[in-house]
Amino acid sequence: MKKLVLNDRGSVTIEAALSLSVLIIVAAAIVGAMATMAAYISAVDIAGAAARAHAIGVEYQPPRSDISVSVGESAGLVIVTASVPGVIGTMSADAAFPAEVGGQ
């Protein structure tokens, strides 16, 4: 016959260890999501700044070397796409700004 365990000794320790590990994983996921949203907000800001700069004829340099900025012009609009690496994937944003025409 199989012997049954009749005491609960150590079960609280195991439950606490499992609960703590789950809480740490959830906290890490929340921090990663916040960092990814910060990357998206940064991509929106960089796309807007690059579109304004290219619309007036100024060369734009991104603040970090790992950020990619692509510029296109269509129907008098400067269209910029900025890609910023985040914790959970790469965030990208588009911005459009009317191009300056003629002199000043």
UniProtKB/TrEMBL annotation:
Transmembrane segments: 20-43
Protein origin, superkingdom: Bacteria
Keyword tags: Membrane, Transmembrane, Transmembrane helix
Protein name as it appears in the record: Secreted protein
Species of the source: Corynebacterium casei LMG S-19264
